[in-house]
Amino acid sequence: MPKQIITNSIWLLIGKIASVLFNLSITIMIARTFGEDGFGEYSFLLAYMSIALVISTFGMDVYVVRAVAGQDNHSISATVIGALIIQLAIGVLIILTAIVWSIFFGSQIQSMEAFWLYLLIIIPSAFGTVFNGILKGIEKMGYYVIYLLFDLGIQVIGIHFLLSKTPSIFSLILILLVARIAAVVLAGFFVWITTSINWQLNLPTWTQLNKILLAGSYISMAIILTTIFQRLGVLTLSFASTDVDVGLFNAANKLIEGIKILPAVFYGALFPAMVKGGKSFQTEMKGVRYLFFVMLMVSIGGYLLSDIIIFSIFKGFEESNALFKVLILGVVPFMVRQFYAFRFMAAGHEKEVFFASLMTLVIALVVYNGAFHYFGLIGLCWAVNLVLVVEILVYILLKNLLRINFR
User: Fold this and answer.
1) 103, 111 Cβ separation under 8 angstroms
2) What is the number of alpha carbons within 13 Å of residue 272 lying toward its C-beta?
3) Which end of the chain is more exposed for a tag (fewer CB within 10 A), N or C?
4) What would the mean pLDDT of 150-176 be, rounded to a whole number?
5) Would the pLDDT of 407 be above 70?
6) Are 175 and 122 spatial neighbours (Cβ–Cβ below 8 Å)?
7) Residue, of 207 and 187, whose pLDDT is higher
8) What pLDDT band is residue 43 in, cutting at 50, 70 and 90?
9) Residue 21, Cβ neighbours under 10 Å: how many?
10) What residues contact residue 96 under an 8 Å CB cut-off, 6+ apart?
11) Which segment of 90-99, 187-196, 249-258 scores lowest on mean pLDDT?
12) Closest C-alpha among 257, 245, 280 to residue 331
């Protein structure tokens, strides 16, 4: 496997793990600092902003990586500037809409000023999406991870500083905003020192903006559908069963989600090579074969050691063992599914990815409910694996019907 893909995968894995740990520590610090009431208010604001950021990003995180990786010279093109313009336009619209909504219907928001201040984070985040997309596109994953850790590190230091003062939700949000702005400035500096960027604006035409907007809409909808699909098992049980069944399934599924981080970071590192195609991707394809072997070994090892794993991590959830044994068999199909999704996206076929995601979700809605109704939790777990295989077949069918030739 090429050294660069290994290095990039390790960087992204470090970023993923560090992000989880930092966010956990930040959550604990906020909860201890503000108590139940303050933490509840913060969680409320965070829920709103998480949705707002997903909408404002509009799939441009993926689009910028693809646009930059597809260029011979790593200069900012009109398409990347267009991606920033679209994000800023959507972000401003969200901010104005949220402010008007909060004035007339936001009676449940305790700190209105904090909410309005938090909305401003959308603006630097748009620049962050572009800068980090450029860094990923030129395969400088290390700089992206440094940006991520810098942002989280400032948050931790700022919140720790609040402990010695009189804390308020407004001051907390101000720290989060300052941390994001500082991290984005750092990401911009990294872009400046690693690329030959012509800072003279190359504004996109209306035709180019429409093209970017269409691509972003398909990418964002595909991401949303995939997110719903990943949570569909728990959602199905929430409506059709008891909290006990939800807990047992979620315990087993959380472990599987942790294992799935590996193919996620690997394909994230491989994505620029997929976009470039040709010899670059053919060389990197060796890594996919290695990943297949690793995930196969993980699947077999997890199945054989499931008793020890469940007892060690989720003591008291021994009934989840049988569920884990079934779900672990779906790790390899998930890896293959991810390969096709990334490959289609890299080749500019986001419309097909959206269609496959939509079709998979519709099938899953029917299969999950039927499997649980007739076969219980074990049936639901088998249904999860089955639908992954179905999605792979959908991608293969689309590739053959549309005669899509990957470079």
Assistant:
1) no
2) 23
3) C
4) 84
5) no
6) no
7) 187
8) confident
9) 11
10) none
11) 249-258
12) 257
Domain boundaries, the chain: 3-204, 218-401
Confidence tier at 406 by pLDDT (50, 70, 90): low
Report how far residue 80's alpha carbon sits from residue 61's, in angstroms, rounded to the nearest whole number: 10
Check if the beta carbon of residue 169 is closer than 8 Å to that of residue 38: yes
The rounded distance, in Å, linking the Cα atoms of 339 and 296 is: 15
Task: Identify the residue whose tokens are 């008007």.
Answer: 100
Tell me the three-class secondary structure of 86-138, residue by residue: HHHHHHHHHHHHHHHHHHHHCCCCCCHHHHHHHHCCHHHHHHHHHHHHHHHHC
405: exposed, middle or buried (Cβ count in 10 Å: 0-12, 13-18, 19+): exposed
* Contact partners, residue 143, CB within 8 Å, separation at least 6: 135, 187, 190, 194
Q: Counting beta carbons within 10 angstroms of the beta carbon of residue 63, is it exposed (0 to 12), middle (13 to 18) or buried (19 or more)?
A: buried
Q: What is the mean pLDDT of the chain?
A: 83
> Is the pTM for the entire model greater than 0.90?
no
Residue from 348, 58, 56 nearest 220 by CA = 58
Q: Is the pLDDT of residue 199 over 60?
A: no
pLDDT of residue 309: 77
Residue indicated by tokens 């990418």 = 219
The structure tokens listed for 33 are 């600092």
